[in-house]
Design a protein that fits this description.
This protein is of the alpha/beta class and 293 residues long. It is 54% helix and 14% strand. Strand 5, helix 5 and strand 6 form a beta-alpha-beta unit. It binds nicotinamide-adenine-dinucleotide.
Length: 293
């Protein structure tokens, strides 16, 4: 079994630059994606693409998924994609998607029954940090499996946190995105009200960034994606809404009555439905601005 041969399923906004980092670090990467356009972009980038997850998995010691959600990950491994069938016992599966922790535990048990090891290792930092290989990676699973994955993860990320048992990386990722989404929505509301009062939008952002209201969104999202009107962060509204639903479901499963998470999940679900499939998550500003008028 060769851990330097990696099947990579999901060549989208994040997956493509992550495969570039892996190839640059000397790994052989066998890519697969449902979308022909994504496969073509991977080939144009110098990658080796396969029509199905199962074909990509053939002969790989490690399989990485970077897919929209837990349902799609399960489908790629055990459903229509059937990648697990092509992996030899002892192979390592790393789900780097932002999946759902309870589903990840179930998937881990089903893969273990086939002799396969699963860890969850979702990422934070967006497309920009995927390109330069400085993602934050939160890894859940057996310590030995995380150690085995470390050289692979280090090709894509800078800080690798062991968060605990299987599913804990996915739990942490959903909670992180709740905090991130809440910070962005709060900053957008401040922009709407401040601008209405007559304060220049650039001034609002500059003051926030020099004050206690500063957060990641005020620093790296407001000017380039919101004030510019580009709304091109590379992270969709639908995926953010999914992450907040994951965080709300986790809280509900644990019996934690936390109204902020529930409210955020409802707000972003509404925004995703109103703005449609192609919307970027920074368009929460447009949704809040229209709703406030
Ligand atoms: P994306 O939609 O750009 O890419 C997902 C890819 O998966 C697409 O190319 C799609 O064709 C492919 N796909 C869907 N179903 C498939 C299947 N059954 N088999 C094979 N391929 C399939 O999404 P993304 O922005 O790259 O996000 C991927 C994951 O990373 C998500 O879970 C997201 O929440 C998470 N994430 C995204 C960002 C970001 O900034 N974009 C940051 C951190 C985490």
């Amino acid at each position: 079994m060769d851990d330097r041969v990696i099947a990579f399923i999901g060549l989208g906004q994040m997956g493509l630059p992550m495969t570039r980092r892996l190839r640059g670090a000397g790994f052989e990467v066998r890519g697969a994606d449902l979308s022909a356009a994504a496969r073509d972009a991977f080939v144009a980038d110098g990658g080796q693409a396969f029509a199905s997850p199962m074909e990509a998995a053939n002969g790989s010691g490690v399989l990485i998924t970077m897919l929209p959600d837990a349902t799609v990950v399960r489908d790629a491994l055990l459903g229509a994609g059937n990648a697990a069938a092509a992996l030899a016992p002892g192979a390592l599966v790393i789900d780097m998607s932002s999946s759902a922790p309870m589903a990840t535990r179930r998937l881990g048990a089903d893969l273990a029954a086939r002799g396969l090891t699963l860890i969850d290792a979702p990422v934070s930092g967006g497309v920009k940090r995927a390109v330069v290989g400085t993602l934050a990676i939160m890894a859940g699973g057996e310590a030995a499996a995380i150690e085995r994955a470390r050289p692979v993860l280090l090709a894509m990320g800078q800080s690798i946190f062991s968060t605990g048992p299987l599913g804990s990386g996915h739990a942490m990722k959903a909670l992180n995105n709740y905090v991130s989404a809440a910070g962005l929505a709060a900053a957008c509301e401040a922009l709407i009200v401040g601008r209405h009062f007559g304060i220049a939008p650039e001034t609002i952002v500059d003051v926030l960034n020099a004050s206690t209201g500063r957060n990641n969104s005020t620093e790296v999202k407001l000017k380039p994606f919101v004030l510019s009107g580009s709304f091109a962060s590379g992270f969709s509204m639908a995926l953010m809404a999914k992450d907040l639903r994951t965080a709300a479901d986790l809280a509900a499963t644990l019996g934690d009555d936390v109204p902020g998470i529930a409210d955020a999940a409802a707000l972003w679900e509404q925004a995703a439905a109103a703005l449609g499939k192609g919307a970027d998550h920074t368009e929460i500003f447009r949704f809040l601005a229209e709703a406030s008028a």
